[in-house]
Design goal:
Elements lengths: L2 H27 L2 H27 L14 H29 L7 H28 L3 H30 L4 H28 L5 H13 L7 E10 L2 E10 L5 H18 L3 E9 L28 H4 L7 H4 L1
Parallel strand pairs: 2-3
Antiparallel strand pairs: 1-2
Helix pairs in contact: 1-2, 1-4, 2-3, 2-5, 2-6, 3-5, 3-6, 4-5, 5-6
Length: 327
């Protein structure tokens, strides 16, 4: 069993046990705040179940119908989880608003407080574990699941503080007020998760990944690599696809061009992550001479002035960079 599958199964089993514990706490106390936490646990179970299927699908090899693999399903999984969180937040606010006007009796809050406190601590441990595995395995699904559990942790600890205040002050309507506040926080978390997943589905560029690639190229650049531009990154599950244009001396033959491009491919894959590169080779132009460091160039038109430092802002532009425009 893969590391990702093991992690999501652990998440699913833990969520199931914690949900039962939270509903037990609700039936003991009758607290709306505890019901809020229990309802979110249902979302955890649904999300973990869908995450398991998406991870299974994302690990399937490429085929004729999916030449880029099945990794995009992880963004869809994160989107579904975000929508479920949003729905849970809205339901929580509606029910708690009703009970704020028509408060219900609560009891045995000390027992409920202890149960919610313990479940929150367990969620924090599992959430951090999922985040760690998700980052190591480059899994959007596991990271989304981990952040969701950490959100559940924060809400649980907030509810614990609220329950303690209720016991100290005996102000019953605080129970519904706390539940409403937690509901809005849950909606905010669901929005952020949904926004990120939609960005992934729409192939939104990840500037952090671009910066990592540019940093590797800049620190290890070869003299024939005159310029890099139109650099883009896409993520498909655990795999990354990178394409860019590289300007090389126009008099290089095909074998020499292939060698230089292969070196870029090896460099990025050795210092970055598992990536598939599509590199378009551009011939140099006379205007490139003043930032080209090919000392023995037989066709130089202008003297070398200065090197253009590659940055993420420069390389994402779909045009060659001429020194006259930058110096």
């Amino acid at each position: 069993m893969s590391v990702k599958k093991r992690a999501v199964i652990i998440s699913l089993l833990v969520s199931l046990m914690l949900m039962l514990a939270k509903f037990l706490a609700y039936f003991i106390t009758g607290s709306n705040a505890i019901l809020t936490d229990a309802a979110e646990s249902i979302v955890n179970i649904i999300a973990s179940s869908f995450a398991f299927y998406s991870i299974y699908l994302s690990t399937q090899p490429k085929d004729e119908n999916h030449p880029y693999g099945h990794g995009k399903v992880e963004f869809f999984s994160a989107f579904v989880e975000g929508v479920l969180i949003l729905i849970a937040g809205v339901i929580i606010i509606l029910k708690s608003s009703y009970n704020l006007i028509y408060p219900s009796k609560v009891s045995e809050l000390l027992v409920g407080t202890l149960i919610i406190g313990v479940t929150g601590l367990i969620n924090m441990i599992v959430g951090l574990y999922l985040l760690n595995v998700g980052k190591n395995e480059h899994s959007v699904t596991l990271q989304a699941d981990g952040r969701h559990l950490l959100t559940d942790t924060y809400t649980s600890f907030g509810i614990v503080i609220g329950l303690i205040l209720i016991q100290l002050t005996n102000i019953i309507w605080l129970d519904s007020l706390i539940s409403i506040i937690v509901g809005f926080y849950i909606i905010y978390t669901g929005y952020k998760l949904t926004r990120k997943s939609v960005g992934g589905l729409m192939d939104e560029s990840d500037l952090t990944l671009v910066e990592e690639v540019v940093d590797i190229l800049q620190k290890n650049r070869h003299i024939p690599w005159i310029d890099v531009h139109n650099l883009r990154t896409q993520q498909y599950g655990p795999e990354f696809h990178i394409d860019c244009h590289v300007t090389l001396p126009y008099y290089f033959d095909l074998n020499k061009v292939h060698k230089e491009i292969s070196q870029i491919d090896e460099l990025v894959n050795s210092g970055f992550r598992k990536s598939e590169l599509f590199i378009h080779a551009d011939p140099c132009l006379p205007k490139c001479c003043n930032y080209c460091k090919m000392i023995d160039c037989p066709v130089r038109f202008e003297p070398f002035k200065a090197e253009i430092v590659w940055t993420s802002e420069l390389v994402i532009k779909n045009q060659k960079h001429f020194a006259n425009d930058l110096f």
